[in-house]
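Researcher: I've been going back and forth with a colleague about how LacI family transcriptional regulator might be arranged in three dimensions. Neither of us has a model we trust, so I'd like an independent prediction. The organism is Paractinoplanes aksuensis, in case that matters for your notes. Sequence below.
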Amino acid sequence: MRETTLRDVAELAGVSPRTVSNVVNGYARVTDATREKVERAIAELGYQPNVLARNLATGRSGQIVVVVPYLDTPYFAELLQAIIPAARQAGYNVLVDQTDGDPAHEASLVSRGARRLLFDGMIFSPLGLSQQDLSVRDPALPLVVLGERTSDGTFDHVGIDDVAASSDAVAHLIKIGRTRIAAIGDQPYPTGEAAQLRTRGFRAAHAAAGRPVDETLIVGTARFNRLDGAQAMATLLDRADPPDAVFCYSDLVASGAIHTLLQRGLRVPEDVAVIGYDDIEDGRYGRPTISTISPDKKAIAQTAVDRLMLRISSSEPVPGVELRAAHRLIPRESTLGR
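Model: Here is an independent structure prediction for LacI family transcriptional regulator. You can compare it with whatever you and your colleague have in mind.
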């Protein structure tokens, strides 16, 4: 049996093959009436577009790639769940790459000509590359960067105001009467921008309240995970003057910190209040539920996809922009009690 062609659809719909192509490829310059005729003909004939031929003709793959450091981190998993439907709505499939924060792998993905036949653009959350590293990349690659980076004018950056969000978290601890507030998650090295911004917010909240910062209460971690949170909390509790509250740089860190506190026989929040960051699903269902900073993940995802589509479709260079999504403080049991 002969395979249905685009010309067959055009004859049934009473239009030109070019018009059918415009409908199949989603071009806007087709009237609603014509589009409906073509879509009815496609459905009646069971026409399946030749994606490979279309991609060869347009020079596009119909795919974008989303690059994240870790797929086992709930924040990135939840962000991907928002990015994928937004990309599908725009007519794109999504490839996913996990870098494990390996700078060589991350650099290879944004190098000149890398894998360009596989994808048309990239949404990238780098961990192993510094801001300076990002500037040495293929300028022709449509790129939107997530996380704590600043656009160099050739790519878009989408995120939240980490300093303000972190300050809000610490201000909440101050407001409920805590006086010795620790921070878990600082990363004072070139690729630790996210942690450094959260440390700035920690200090800013103290300054706004007219309080000095005890630098010895700022504890670094290699990653924002449960193990690091648990170990850092143990270090703080072994002090002669432990804290009565802790700002954790992720909800996973907060979960690990709470685990150590409960193991030591302490009560959360009565003895030590804990607040996290990211508003992951697990934080809403544990005991105690975790107070947190909630970034608007859906807005981050939609904005990133919209900007990437603009870059892919534009024949002229698109200036890079800084785009901020909203965040909000969500107090729960780990700071307010039941």
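Researcher: What would you highlight for our discussion?
Model: I'd start with this: The chain is about 45% helix and 15% strand. After that, consider the following. The chain has a mean pLDDT of 89.
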